[in-house]
Each structure stands twice: as C-alpha cells, then as structure tokens.
C-alpha cells in the first residue's frame, strides 16, 4: 500500500516542484521551438556560412550530455562573470539542448515540402523569408507535429536535470522529501505521477492535433 | 523584352544550354519544343532566375538577370510562371493562393487583392471555386487557378512549362483555351509544350531545341510545313504520329 500521508504531508513541496517543472518546461519549450526553427532555417538557407553554423550547433549540442550543458550554464558562466540562479541555468540548458533536436525535426519537415512550393512562391516575387513564413513552415508544421510531440515529452522528462543543480523542480523536491522522511519508493512514485500529469495530456494533445490537421489539408 | 546572347549553362560537368541566342519581343508568343532532356525547362527557368546561367548575357525587361546588384524579387513580380504540376499552395484556399503575392509583394490591400483575384477567376472560368482548397479541384481547374495566380500580379511576361502535361486529356482543352485568350490579349508568353495544335494556332514563333541547343527557330506555318533540321523532322514525325 502506498503511504498517501507522504503526499499530503508534503503537498506544498510537491506542488512547488510541480509548478517549477511546469514553468521550466513551458519556457524551455517555447524557447527551444524558436531557436530550433532558426537553426533549421540556418541549415537549409542558401547561405553557406549559415549552413555551417547551423550544422555546428546541432552536432555539438546533441552529442554532449544534457547535464554537462546545464553545468556550463550553472558553473561555467559564473567563471566569466554571469551568475544565474539554478532554475534559470537549468531552463536555459534544457532549452539550448532541446533546440538541437527540434532543429533536426523541423529541418526534415521543411525538406519534406515539395520543392515546387518554394519555386512557385519565389517566382511570384516573395522573398525567401516570406516564402518560409507563408508557404513552407505552415506545411512543414503538419509534417513535424508527431516527432515534435516526442521532443516535447522528452523535454518535460529531461527537465528533471534541474534537480541535479538544486533547481527547485519536482525531482529536487522528491530528493528533499526522501531525505527528510527516509522513504524512497513512495516518494518517487508520487513524483512520477506528477510527471505523468504533464506528459500524458501532452501526448493526448499531440494525438488530437495530429488527427485534426490530417482532416484539414 | 527577353534577350539571350551566347548563354551557356552547366550542371557540374553537364552542359545543359549551349550558346543560346534568342530574342523575344513584347507581345510575342514563343513555343519551345524538343525532345525530353533537351533543356527546354532549364531555358525557361533561367528567365526568372530559378536557374542561374553560367556564361553569356540574359536581359529580361531591361534587367540583367544574373547581375548580383539587381533585386530579383523586383524582376520576378513582372514574370508569372505556370508549372507542370500546378504548385498551388495546398494549405490555402483558391482565393488565398491568388491574393498572397499581390498582398505581400505589391502591398495591395486585401479588399482590392480579392477583387482582382475574383476578376481573374472569372476570366479563367471558375469564380465559384474561390473558397475551395486545391485538393478539391480537378487538374484542369487547378491549373487555371495557377494561371489566375500568375495573372493577378499583372505581369509583363508569362512563362509556361508544360502546363498541360499532367492533365487528363479532357481537361487539357480548358487550360489551352485560357492560354489562347491570353495570347490574343497581347501577353508576352514563353510556352514549353507538346501540344502541337496549340503551337500551330497561337505561336508567333516555334523554337526547336535538342541537346541544349536551339536548332531551329521559325514561324509555325513554316516550321510545321517544312522543318529544315533533320532532327526536327524526326521529332515532329514522332510526336504527330500519336
Ligand atoms: N538540377 C539538375 N542537376 C543536374 N542535371 C539536371 C538538373 N536539372 C536538369 N538536369 C539535366 O539537364 C537536362 C535538361 O533538363 P530540362 O529539364 O531542361 O529538359 P527538358 O527539355 O525540360 O526535358 P523534359 O521534356 O523531360 O521536361 C536533362 O538531361 C536533365 O537531366
Ligand atoms: Mg521540362
């Protein structure tokens, strides 16, 4: 039997952790989507130096462990005089890390749009960026919704990295409650349930979007 | 209006366009024919710089197309293009397809852009499809929308690259009719097509290409009655026999 008293006695802590995990996830999600789109466009724009820059970002970032990136923000930046609180450092690390994966997803989505679309739009006098905005990205979005959903779910789970640098997220408070109560199993089961509260609706939401977009053309 | 002088183009080692010389005047309808792979599409796509030339001179509407200092979007707004596979924007309605460039490129207000769009939709005979999506239209209807989309920019030149090749035989006619009408109204047109009836009836000039070269250039009566080049004869015999 689960000891529910643990949940009730430490409800405040769980809730604070949950709120912070939610906040970190939402911020990192928005940020990584924006960075990811920019990096993806860098990678495919007809400008060589931007291609290299985009490729370097993706290859560099996605091939290092997330924890290390977060450490760079948390202990690396203070070395050059920029001091961030753990929550901010963790969220930024998560954002930068996830952006590399999102960039790849978006890039493949853009490449999946038939090239006649770009030709038709450019030949009508639209600029490259206008074409991206009005023609290519809206079509690419539909293609990338499912893989993007996976990245978002990964992002929520990966936000637990904040716990490592005391970022006041769910994982951090889980550790705290566990060390106060000397209970492990039950404490972390509740932590897991809180994560599910975030990830399952996300998963369902992506499925719903996918079905709705399939109906429109 | 369009002036090719000693134009050459390579794809890597492959020599696609060889010493092209061609002048097209305002109001002329020029039909380009030739076997598959002879460089017809490439030639037409150079005119609005969807392809870049490797050497020579190409002047369109008094602009050196491959000059680095020109604003290519400025030139392109004067050149409409119609593709074999229509290339309509599938996520937009017919009306949105047509009004996008006028609104974003020419900065025409939405209301006026819609009126212009409706005018051209009437012209191509499908005003009732304004709010349909491309996927709800037949091939012939889609191609007519594509033509209306090009015309809505009020271009000086219209380029057509095999506009009827992807169509069912019964819808080819409706697209050709629109093109004939356009030619009659004095539009400068460059058309790649295998529709010899259209070429004969509408073209001011036929340009025959083979292996990257323009082999023959003549008015249609002359070209069809009495092609000078052996390869043009062979090509005509093959194409007219089915
Ligand atoms: N991007 C490219 N890279 C390399 N070769 C190309 C490219 N595009 C076209 N080619 C080659 O250039 C040649 C001319 O192509 P083009 O499309 O202009 O021919 P076409 O006369 O339009 O033929 P079709 O009637 O089949 O449309 C072909 O041999 C083709 O394989
Ligand atoms: Mg072709």
TrEMBL record, chain A:
- Look up keyword Lyase and say if it applies: no
GO terms for MF: transmembrane transporter activity
The ABC transmembrane type-1 domain, residue ranges = 18-206
Record's bilayer topology term: Multi-pass membrane protein
Highest taxon above the source species = Bacteria
Localization = Cell membrane
Which residue ranges does UniProt annotate as crossing the membrane? 20-42, 63-82, 94-113, 187-209
Q: Which InterPro entries match?
A: AA_ABC_transptr_permease_3TM (IPR010065), ArtM/GltK/GlnP/TcyL/YhdX-like (IPR043429), MetI-like (IPR000515), MetI-like_sf (IPR035906)
Q: What is its main location?
A: membrane
**PROSITE patterns given for it?**
ABC_TM1
Under the heading NCBIfam families, the entry gives: HEQRo_perm_3TM (TIGR01726)
Protein name per Swiss-Prot or TrEMBL: Glutamine ABC transporter permease protein
Automatic annotation (TrEMBL), chain B:
Can you provide one Gene Ontology molecular function annotated for this UniProt record?
ATP binding
Q: Where is the ABC transporter domain?
A: 2-236
Claim: Transcription regulation is one of the keywords in the record? no
Report the superkingdom from the record.
Answer: Bacteria
Which InterPro entries does UniProt cross-reference here?
AAA+_ATPase (IPR003593), ABC_ATPase_HisP-typ (IPR030679), ABC_transporter-like_ATP-bd (IPR003439), ABC_transporter-like_CS (IPR017871), MetN_ABC_transporter-like (IPR050086), P-loop_NTPase (IPR027417)
Family statement: Belongs to the ABC transporter superfamily.
Please report the name of this protein according to its UniProt entry: ABC transporter domain-containing protein
